[in-house]
């Protein structure tokens, strides 16, 4: 959960949560970690959240640098 300045209520955050990562690897660990379905689902959600944030940022950038319409254009 995080607080978005556009919304008064907390929003669900689907990104990586470090408190869920309890596996600590050491130099002597030779085995690969097995990914469970829960792990894969969390990775997928984090990727989708990243893509959503990127698209929202691109929308803002497109609006910011869009060519002005004739009504918005300054007179010459």
The description of the largest β-sheet is:
none
Q: How far apart are the termini?
A: 49 Å
> What share of the residues does DSSP label as strand, in percent?
under 5%
State mean pLDDT (0 to 100 scale): 79
What structural category characterises the helix and strand content? mainly alpha
Report low-confidence residues grouped into runs of 5 or more. Answer: none
Q: What is the string of helix and strand elements?
A: H
Question: What's the Cα radius of gyration?
Answer: 21 Å
Q: What's the multimeric state?
A: single chain
- What is the tally of beta strands? 0
Q: How does the overall form come out from the CA principal axes?
A: rod-shaped
Treating each run of at least 4 consecutive H or I residues as one helix, how many helices? 1
Residue share in helix: 25-40%
Describe the structure.
It is built from 1 helix and no strands. It is mainly α and 76 residues long. It is rod-shaped, with a radius of gyration of 21 Å.
Summarize the structure in short.
The protein has one helix spanning 37-64.
Secondary-structure blueprint:
Elements: H1 37-64
Structure keywords:
single chain, 76 residues, mainly alpha, 37% helix, 0% strand, rod-shaped
């Amino acid at each position: 959960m995080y607080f978005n300045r556009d919304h008064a209520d907390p929003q669900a955050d689907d990104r990586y949560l470090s408190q869920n990562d309890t596996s600590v690897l050491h130099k002597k660990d030779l085995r690969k970690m097995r990914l469970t379905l829960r792990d894969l689902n969390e990775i997928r959600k984090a990727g989708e959240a990243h893509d959503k944030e990127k698209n929202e940022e691109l929308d803002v950038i497109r609006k910011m640098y869009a060519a002005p319409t004739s009504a918005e254009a300054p007179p010459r």
